[in-house]
Amino acid sequence: MESRNFILSSLSSAEEALIRPHLEPASLPHKMTFYRADEPITMVWFIERGCASVINVLPDGDAVEVGTIGNEGLVGTPVLLEADRIPCQCDMQIPGDGWRMSAQALRTALRRSDTLRTKLLRFAQAHFNQVAQTAACNSLHSIEERCARWLSMSRDRAGDDFPLTHEYLAIMLGVRRSGVTVTANLLQNAGLIRHTRGHITITDPVGLEEAACDCYRIVRDEFRRLLPLGNAYPNAPSKR
Description:
CATH class of the largest domain: Mainly Beta
Order of helices and strands: HHEEEEEHEHHHEHHEEHH
Number of strands: 9
Helix content: 40-55%
CATH architecture of the largest domain: Sandwich
């Protein structure tokens, strides 16, 4: 199947026969909510372009990103584990497009194909590794390192230019907006990015990776190791 999504593009003819009839094209605008905390997940999405964010919203209203999902996998990981909800929300952070199908249709396909189930469970493992690494990163690394990591990960999914406000980036990093503004200015003054109102351009992807903490490379390499095509993050920069 011709697709930018690593899972869909890796399907065998038998696996594709189980999935393709249930896929519907989907536009994925900025801030679209895929599912809310503790509400049933009835659909899953395979992202072709753009990036989704898994967000933990606390009772006091504070929110922080705990994971991202792009064209390496799918939105709706709990469905792969025979669950129907999760205490997190998932929104589209960088707009794009993709495919959607019912959660029940995916469950049925997984029961009919061991190889398809293995591929998707390997994505789930890579995603859980990312969530664990993000928790450590948010506790141990500076805002500058975390911001460079996040922007590098977003570039891998969305390219060098993408819409992004400081307010939304503050939620992604779990910091105040003023801290994001200072950090963005530092990265811009270093020649790594260019930011305008509501938009980010990565001008030096190799330098940005070097400014990021090791968490970026750890997560990237785990996705590359576990995913079917073994080439996740094709936009990742080469070292100087």
